[in-house]
């Protein structure tokens, strides 16, 4: 018979090592719940309207299309990208969208399930993880689109195209980590959800996704320390050409992602009960 | 917001939260509430709105953690709090069963085994394959309840959810609860339905303003709680000087035919209700109304001066109006009088006091129902 005890400062009394075990147990036991919540998120987009799925294509197409037009009309001069710009941009956008939409979804996941959290005791980690459903589906739709572009341009991607699910793991870990952190903060200070949106827009332009990394200037310096740059452009380079140029950066960025994920997961675990009080 | 950030910060860095101290603006939703429930017992929790019943359930469910004290639970907890939590309107009933069951804590294996009995219990027919947004509220609740009940928890928390739903649904619920009781499951039942509490609970707690007012046998606790709630309302309303800008009710009392103020009467006595009021502003055709109610708010007779074409004294300042019931033929019990002053249509009140007076009638048991209507037997 399971015995549960609720008392103030529960986690403190047990100590940090116990927490890892608790978290692991919780994630393991709630696999099916996470899958169900993931599926719910996914299906809601699909069932909503025909435009639901199309939206996953229209949005990136629109932004990329704008840049292509700007590039060809000479407004922006985008450095040589070693590949047809459309593919370069689409692929980059796909990875970026995976990051940004998952992050936004994760940040809002607790707030939007507020009434449920107040009534039923269930694993909130599953809620955050499951909220990435739509983004993951959109990502795959965009990859398919990229595949179509490849055939249109008559180029073949490298074998790494099959490794994409593995290559995005560090990116997803970073996203989930940040998502855990921000979802709790968002529950208390509701503005954070909006701030994140604005911040992401800036970040998208500051990270070389739609253009190649500049060699000089402030942006070049900043980009060297931007983990997102490595997490997006290295997989992209791999898919396009089969060679990695900046693998040390990728390794460091991946390590950072894992760290962020673990720290956030622990912080989330310690604070998730407080959420019900404020949401 | 500030407190929230502080709490989170402390939790994260492993600092003690000192939650037993109240900060400015905080109050104890539950204070010094201690009780235990044994396996197989059904505990009822009753109390006025805002007394802390739902907060208590949330503590038992693990949604809030106590700031002081400890909650120890042996066994799996299931809830019957809002039916259909997590239901996504666009998904079908079938898909939502899986979703809801997962949220409530069931394992995949259990859901697949019990799927058919859930569908059968919910009794919504072919609608199971339609998106949930098309369901009526009754179907919603039935499906939610069907899933929650199949969870098979050791301890079931029920929060006023049985109030929704038609009679057949409520009967189904009560039967299911009885079945759970036979299987020695523990049930904690929060409700305003006093009759059900008396029927199904072995122990009852009365919560008042976050404190335990009484613990004991449901029959006693319920009666005391109900009596108290009615009296509180009565006391609130008896406060003098109730009214609006045009008419103000100063005092209302009952007396016998000799003018002695009293409110205990014998069957058949004369009851006089006297009301002192102040006319602040001149109005057209002032009407005084008085209605007699039973203890559970059934209106026995509502009278007003307009119906009987009686004109009231309409001079500014203090006045009195009284009504005499020459032969009070009510059955033994407690009764309440609502009084009010209205405009000429007797629709909008200038001043109204609910339960302004309370009388009790004592007498022989000469009939069933509300009163002993004038009658004469004819036997050949």
Question: Any overview of this molecule?
Answer:
The complex is a heterodimer of chains A (279) and B (380). Chain A is mainly α and 279 residues long. Chain A has one domain. Chain A is built from 14 helices and one strand. Chain A has helices at residues 10-14, 16-29, 31-48, 50-72, 85-112, 114-119, 124-130, 133-153, 164-167, 169-188, 191-206, 218-224, 227-241, 247-278; one strand at 3-6. In chain A, helix 10 (169-188) packs parallel to helix 14 and helix 13 (227-241) crosses helix 14 (247-278). Chain A is globular, with a radius of gyration of 20 Å. Chain A starts with a strand and ends with a helix. The model of chain A has no long low-confidence stretch (mean pLDDT 82). The longest helix of chain B is centred in the middle third of the chain and has 21 residues, at 218-238. Chain B is an alpha/beta fold. Chain B starts with a helix and ends in an 18-residue tail after the last strand. Chain B has helices spanning 2-12, 53-61, 93-104, 108-122, 137-150, 167-182, 194-200, 218-238; strands at residues 42-47, 71-74, 77-80, 155-159, 186-190, 203-208, 211-216, 242-243, 247-255, 264-266, 271-279, 287-294, 299-304, 317-325, 333-342, 349-362. In chain B, a hairpin with a 3-residue loop joins strand 8 (242-243) and strand 9. Chain B folds into two domains: 30-232, P-loop containing nucleotide triphosphate hydrolases (Rossmann fold, 3-Layer(aba) Sandwich), CATH 3.40.50; 240-362, Coagulation Factor XIII, Chain A, domain 1 (Distorted Sandwich), CATH 2.70.50. In chain B, the strands form three sheets. In chain B, strands 3-4-5-1-6-7 form a six-stranded mixed sheet, with helices on both faces. In chain B, 28% of the residues lie in helices and 28% in strands. Chains A and B meet through strand 1, helix 1, helix 3, helix 6 and helix 10 of A and helix 1, helix 2, strand 2 and helix 3 of B.
């Amino acid at each position: 018979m399971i015995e549960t005890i609720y008392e103030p400062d529960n986690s403190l009394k047990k100590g940090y090592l116990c927490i890892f075990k608790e978290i692991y147990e919780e994630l393991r036991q709630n696999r099916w719940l996470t899958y169900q919540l993931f599926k719910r998120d996914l299906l809601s987009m699909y069932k909503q309207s025909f435009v639901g799925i199309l939206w996953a294509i229209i949005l990136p197409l629109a932004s990329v299309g704008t840049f292509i037009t700007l590039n060809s009309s000479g407004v922006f001069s985008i450095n040589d990208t070693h590949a047809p710009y459309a593919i370069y941009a689409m692929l980059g956008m796909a990875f970026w969208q995976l990051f940004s939409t998952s992050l936004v979804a994760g940040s809002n996941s607790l707030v939007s399930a507020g009434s449920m959290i107040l009534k039923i005791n269930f694993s909130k980690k599953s809620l955050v993880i499951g909220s990435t459903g739509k983004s993951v589906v959109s990502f795959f739709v965009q990859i398919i689109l990229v595949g179509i572009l490849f055939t249109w341009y008559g180029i073949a991607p490298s074998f790494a195209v099959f490794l994409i699910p593995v290559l995005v793991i560090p990116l997803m870990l970073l996203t989930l980590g940040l998502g855990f952190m921000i979802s709790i903060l968002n529950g208390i200070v509701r503005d954070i959800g909006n701030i994140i949106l604005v911040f992401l827009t800036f970040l998208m332009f500051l990270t070389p996704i739609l253009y190649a990394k500049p060699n000089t200037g402030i942006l070049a310096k900043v980009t060297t320390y931007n983990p997102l740059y490595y997490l997006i452009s290295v997989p992209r380079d791999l898919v396009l050409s089969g060679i990695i140029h900046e693998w040390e950066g990728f390794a460091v960025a991946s390590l950072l992602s894992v760290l962020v994920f673990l720290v956030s997961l622990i912080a989330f675990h310690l604070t998730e009960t407080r959420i019900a009080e404020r949401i | 917001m500030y407190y929230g950030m502080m709490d989170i910060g402390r939790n994260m860095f492993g600092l003690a939260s000192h939650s037993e101290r109240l900060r400015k603006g905080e109050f104890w939703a539950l204070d010094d509430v201690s009780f235990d429930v044994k396996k197989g017992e059904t505990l009822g929790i009753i109390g006025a709105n805002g007394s802390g019943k739902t907060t208590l359930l949330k503590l038992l469910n693990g949604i809030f953690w106590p700031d002081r004290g400890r909650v120890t639970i042996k066994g799996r907890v299931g809830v019957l709090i809002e039916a259909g939590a997590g239901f996504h309107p666009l998904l079908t009933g079938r898909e939502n069963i899986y979703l809801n069951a997962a949220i409530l804590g069931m394992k995949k294996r259990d859901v697949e085994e019990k799927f058919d009995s859930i569908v059968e219990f919910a009794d919504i027919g072919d609608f199971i394959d339609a998106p949930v947004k098309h369901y009526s509220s009754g179907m919603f609740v039935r499906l939610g309840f069907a899933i929650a009940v199949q969870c098979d928890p050791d301890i079931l928390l029920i929060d006023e959810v049985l109030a929704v739903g038609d009679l057949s649904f409520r009967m189904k619920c009560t039967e299911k609860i009885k079945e759970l009781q036979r299987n020695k499951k523990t049930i904690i039942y929060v409700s305003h339905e006093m009759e059900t509490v008396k029927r199904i609970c072995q122990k009852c707690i009365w919560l008042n303003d976050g404190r335990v007012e009484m613990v004991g046998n449901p029959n006693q606790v319920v009666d005391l709680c109900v009596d108290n709630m009615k009296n509180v309302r009565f006391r609130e309303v008896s406060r003098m000087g109730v009214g609006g800008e045009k008419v103000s009710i100063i005092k209302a009392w009952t007396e016998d035919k000799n003018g002695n103020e009293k409110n205990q009467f014998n069957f058949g006595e004369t009851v006089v209700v006297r009301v002192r009021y102040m006319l602040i502003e001149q109005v057209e055709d002032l009407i005084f109304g008085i209605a007699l109610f039973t203890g559970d708010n059934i209106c026995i007779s509502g009278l007003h001066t307009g119906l009987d074409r009686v004109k009231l004294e309409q001079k500014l300042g203090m006045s009195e109006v009284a009504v005499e019931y020459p032969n009070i033929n009510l059955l033994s019990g407690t009764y309440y009088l609502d009084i009010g002053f209205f405009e000429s249509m007797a629709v909008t009140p200038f001043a109204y006091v609910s339960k302004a007076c309370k009388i009790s009638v004592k007498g022989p048991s000469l009939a069933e129902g509300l009163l002993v209507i004038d009658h004469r037997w004819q036997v050949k």
